[in-house]
Design brief:
Low-confidence stretches of chain B: 1-30
Largest sheet of chain A: none
Strand content of chain B: 15-25%
Largest sheet of chain B: 5 strands, mixed
Number of domains of chain A: 2
Shape of chain B: globular
CATH class of the largest domain in chain B: Alpha Beta
Oligomer: heterodimer
CATH superfamily of the largest domain in chain B: Periplasmic binding protein-like II
Helix content of chain B: 40-55%
Order of helices and strands of chain A: HHHHHHHHHHHHHHHHHHHHHHH
Distance between the termini of chain A: 25 Å
Shape of chain A: globular
Mean pLDDT of chain B: 88
Number of helices of chain A: 23
Strand order of the largest sheet of chain B: 2-1-3-10-4
Number of strands of chain A: 0
Largest interface: A-B, 72 and 61 residues
Amino acid sequence: MTAITEGASGSRQRFPALPGWAITTAGIVAFLLLWEVVARTLLAGSYIIAAPSEIVARIDEGAALYGRALRTTLWAALLGFLIGNATAILLAGVASLAARAERLVQALALVVFCLPLVATGPILRVIFGPGIGPQVTLAALAVYYTTLIPLLVGFKAVPSSWPDLVASYGRGRFQTLIHVRARASIPYLVAGLQIAAPAAFLGAMVGEFTGAERGLGVLTIQAIRTLDVAGTWAIAVIATVTSIAGYVAIGWVGKRFSHGAPPVLLAAPPTPDRSAPGRRIVTGVLAVVLTTVVAIGLWWALLELFDLHPFFAKRPSDVWNYLFNLPASGANRERVLSALAETLSVTVPGYIAGLVIGFLAACLFELYPAAGRAATPIAIALRSIPIIATAPLIVLAFGRGAFGMLIIVGTLTFFPTLVAVAQGLRQTPGQVVDLFGVYRAGGVRTLVTARIPSALPAFFAAARMAVPAAVLAATVAEWLATGTGIGNLMALTASTSAYNLLWSCVVVLTLVSVAGYGLVALVERYVLHRFAPEQLR
Amino acid sequence: MSRLLLPRRKVLQLMGAAGAGALAAPRAAFGQALTPATLQLSWLHSAQFGGSYIALDRGIWEAEGLDVTLLPGGPNAPVEPPVVAGTALMGISAADYAGPAIMEGAPFKIIAVAMQKNPFTICSLPANPVNTPADLVGKRIGMATTNTPILQAICTFNDVDFNAITIVPTQYDAAPLANGEVDCLLCWLTDLPIALTLRGIPNVTMLLADYGYSVHSQTYIVTDDSLANRRDEVIRLLRGEIAGWNAYREDTDAAAELTVAMFPDLGLDLEVQKLTASEQIKLMFSPLTDEFGFGWWTDETVAENVATLAAIGITVTPDIWDRSILEEIYA
């Protein structure tokens, strides 16, 4: 089977083989040259971007300092990466074993992922006190979700006959999970872990904003405050290179572990849903109610457990009163909702643009692998560069208004989509591709009729995950760069101590993210039913 | 690879953090037992808090029987929660931060004032300077939108048409002024102007405190509970601060050098720190402090604060200032 798969990929080679590393290197060199020229001509004398040569000189000059900072941040990122991903794997296992719990696990995981840094940072600092606790936690929070969701998809990417086979031997769900689902999910897990590498690093860096003595995040703040552009970019480059190294290393390890071609998934005969539509609605409503009750219960219980003071740790009842029970509630709602509208007006277009471009780029890279090899490092770099360093550049290029925000959200949505879809496209069974090859079907036709349907679940998983990610990106950009929308409203809390407002914003943002997620899931169900019913089990 | 191995101390710290941060192990007593006390700073370590470093470095607090931990702040580290939560015995806030927090139910008081004059400044370039509030007319000002009420107040106090100023939401960053995107910045005297100067960009500053903006900054806050039950520790902690800051005033360069030496991992620039320190004492010491001592305030200065805060939409009452600790110290 392996030989066949190799043959299939070989038959797509249209150009005389240039070694992959050569293409990648050429892409990077061209990019760096362009950067150097632009920084030294167009942007010379401005405090926006440093030329690569200046950055290298700065890194060399501050090597000892940057080395120590990198060690600190990397350590926190690594711990967060391990804890976050272990949690994700555990949660996915639970969800797979207890099918009824899957929805609840997914919903709660989503709610936790939606919590904005501005709200969680200070609370984590109070809970952990001095040290790297908040950095590790924020890194873990940044990764667990993007691992959990692909993993749940991967657990389902098995031919229906395999679990049946296990069942026919009298074994239960646990054995199916270990012997069938876990193995099938490895490529999905690897894709999730790859996305997690830069996310963990950024999470650890932003965690240092909650008050730290050392680390790359701390140095970034110092560099920006002192107008040290070369320093800012030196740190950004170190962060980016580290993230890319993590990404590549995980991909390499992943390749070693995922042997065997992806299996052919055949559509099972559709199982008609016998329950009446009325009853299905009731079940759906019950699920929402249950999730809400559990989420609110956990919220309240955790604050009580850690005995957090109600001045800054608001309870569900405080938020309810603020929004609905006070004379000022009308004005409060108006304040939150108008800021939300401002945020959504850039988040939604940015999100859609990121998804579409990510999807198209993955398809393009599948058709022209050379382009993919040259562009992938740049795509990872885009995701890994701390937004605090790129924001001034984006603002310069696209203005301080909505368009700059749209670019930021789009960039952050684009990368996970690209990775997930590229991985999904490669999940097309070799036999299917060979069949297309035998009939001399062109690359485009193979892509459209064979590869894209296999990649649909991965695409939708990415689209679902990107909903909270896009909202978070928008609010962080509003906080750090533009001073608009709900992100800014939440950041105001630092000076006004309006914690009721902050927590209300958090609740509203979470509800919006969950609703957006639900909407994407509905579209997904419809599309998969129509084009890839075999992936629905 | 060896870089990834973690020192045992870190493991213990981490275990402590992950396990139960609340379980503070009682310190083993060697000779004289020191009482642990934590001071929450309002920003990352820098010469801005040099007085505290002197108190630590010279053993002033140790002599007071205190084992002091200085917690750094940051962009996402408000001072009020750790103080309210009891993580820190004392915090460094400001009247315009502490006031709203108290009104929102935070049970603490301002017990001393480190910066008599507010550090907010309009920073501009010599070619197109803002020397007086009237010069603001027609200018593009880069600032955090959060600070809009401050600009409004300055306009009101000095009869300037607020609508004739264009606000550019640059947040807190000197680059837009250096790049010509704005004509002036609303910032602190002690950071962005110094950064510009050391990058070779001469600049003009106009201190808002000279034009009616009377808001105490770098104020010490302590909870009502600590004032009642840990009063002695609060007094000793503040006494160390006062001694540290008086020494800071004597030799700001030495304070800057100490700062850089104490925090080698922060990449602090000695020249930046020296300038910060020498600019900062202009805000901290005045005829008032010469007469009564560091940290002091009078009913008149509090009344000015209450009036200024009212002008920027913050309602506070004079009783959020509590001078009893200072009175005991200077008695």
